[in-house]
Inverse folding.
């Protein structure tokens, strides 16, 4: 994205952004409720523990040790001081288990950090107990990728200003990435900085914000951390630069999908003549719910570059690249479909040429390939007109609608 072109430093939150944290607290709280089951309802314990934690934050700060002390105090309160030494000992042992819990990196975190490290100065800004956070960072296996590490007692505007000033970082060159709107996103936005929210499926109650508390501040949101590579596009390969419109063709254009495209996509895709030529993952009948799910996928896909084919102001098809991995990472598979109403106009051929140009010039790919069923003469002509070369047939490689078909392979390399 253009707005991130000046970023030099990426600062990451740690807990529930890089590795699992909150579920460990929730599991321990569930054990405490079982331990004190005879002294009140689960709801009462949750409320009492919440109140105790909130009161103790200014004394103990954030982290497991403060949580252990709050659990002990809650146990004393709920039992009117009758809690036994054995029970207190169990609570302490539960806390020790938390402190020794193995570090569980979230999906794609290690790959993301390694992909960004050559292009950005990486930093951790996390809050909590100093010893515990240092231990988690060391045990994560990621420490060597971070040039700067800041463990703070709070994450508010004053804290961030102090951190950036201490490290001589310019606000316009720093991007903050984290799972907490309250701690990672809102303070940075209030300072006029850039932030990306990566929601975690559970959020500590003390970190939750009502929607109106973030209204009016601009920040991006991604589903998983690996999407950050694609969004920032440090090397333009295989990450996709976030272009809104890829090309303006003659009578059509390739652009990003919008949620409002769902009805048009469903109307044009709900055609057996299209479905019969594609893999079974392309549904038939094709409903608006199918369209909404596809658009959501296309908008957030990590390993695919997907554009709508727009004609006469409507999304009437789709074309995209599926990035390959490992030793095939400089290759991508081309796939597309177009409404039958617009067949024969050369739109599919022009769209395939545009995607090939984008792949080679913008994404640094070396090869594209496409596969079509042997009974799909129209797609074969589209690929040949777009410059693809027939590379052979995989005999009886597909079964579609009860028929066993050969699959024709076509390829296009940068030199072509």
């Amino acid at each position: 994205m253009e707005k991130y072109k000046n970023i030099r430093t990426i600062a990451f939150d740690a807990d529930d952004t890089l590795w699992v944290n909150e579920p460990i607290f929730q599991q321990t709280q569930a054990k405490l409720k079982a331990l004190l089951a005879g002294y009140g309802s689960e709801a009462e314990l949750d409320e009492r523990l919440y109140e105790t934690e909130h009161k103790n934050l200014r004394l103990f700060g954030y982290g497991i040790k403060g949580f252990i002390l709050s659990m002990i105090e809650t146990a004393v309160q709920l039992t009117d001081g009758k809690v036994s030494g054995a029970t207190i000992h169990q609570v302490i042992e539960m806390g020790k288990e938390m402190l020794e819990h193995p570090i569980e990196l979230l999906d794609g975190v290690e790959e993301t950090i390694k992909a960004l490290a050559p292009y950005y100065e990486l930093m951790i800004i996390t809050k909590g107990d100093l010893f515990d956070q240092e231990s988690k960072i060391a045990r994560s296996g990621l420490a060597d990728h971070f040039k700067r590490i800041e463990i703070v007692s709070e994450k508010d505007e004053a804290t961030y200003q102090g951190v950036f000033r201490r490290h001589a970082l310019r606000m316009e060159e720093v991007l903050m990435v984290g799972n907490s709107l309250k701690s990672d996103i809102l303070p940075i936005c209030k300072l006029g900085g850039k932030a990306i929210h990566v929601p975690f499926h559970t959020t500590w109650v003390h970190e939750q914000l009502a929607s109106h508390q973030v209204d009016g501040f601009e920040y991006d949101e991604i589903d998983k951390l690996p999407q950050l590579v694609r969004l920032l596009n440090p090397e333009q390969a295989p990450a996709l630069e976030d272009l809104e419109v890829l090309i303006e063709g003659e009578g059509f254009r390739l652009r990003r999908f919008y949620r409002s495209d769902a009805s048009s996509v469903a109307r044009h895709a709900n055609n057996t003549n299209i479905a019969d030529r594609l893999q079974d993952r392309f549904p038939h009948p094709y409903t608006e719910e199918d369209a909404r799910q596809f658009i959501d996928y296309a908008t957030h896909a990590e390993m695919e570059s997907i554009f709508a084919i727009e004609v006469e102001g409507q999304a009437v098809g789709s074309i995209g690249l599926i990035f390959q991995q490992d030793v095939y990472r400089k290759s991508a598979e081309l796939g597309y479909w177009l409404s039958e109403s617009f067949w024969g106009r050369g739109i599919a051929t022009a769209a395939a040429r545009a995607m090939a140009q984008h792949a080679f010039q913008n994404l640094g790919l070396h090869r594209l390939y496409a596969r079509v069923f042997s009974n799909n003469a129209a797609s074969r002509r589209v690929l040949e007109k777009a410059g693809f070369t027939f590379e052979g047939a995989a005999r009886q490689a597909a079964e579609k609608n009860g028929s066993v078909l050969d699959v024709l392979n076509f390829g296009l390399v940068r030199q072509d």
The first strand starts at residue 9 and ends at 12. Residues 203-210, 236-242 have pLDDT under 50 and may be disordered.
